[in-house]
Amino acid sequence: MGDWAGVVIGFVLFVVFSPGLLFQLPGKGRVVEFVNFQTSGVSIFVHSLLFFGFMVIFLIAIDVHIGSG
């Protein structure tokens, strides 16, 4: 009936690429910091580029589909 790939992949990537939740790139003191629960404008920009890139790879380049019927 519908293609759920965009919703599922978007949700998973949003959680994975949330700055400061699992990792932060660039970090405040280092290049990569893990589980610091802090963020900056630069890291938000970098993580949004990563999110967009991986969404394009999964939905357009690989053409992933998750059907519900």
TrEMBL record:
InterPro entries recorded: DUF3339 (IPR021775)
Keywords: Membrane, Transmembrane, Transmembrane helix
Keyword hit for Transmembrane: yes
Transmembrane helix found in the keyword field: yes
Residues spanning the membrane: 6-23, 44-66
Pfam families xrefs: DUF3339
Matching PANTHER family: OS05G0103400 PROTEIN, PROTEIN, PUTATIVE-RELATED
Name recorded for this polypeptide: Transmembrane protein
Species for this entry: Crotalaria pallida (Smooth rattlebox)
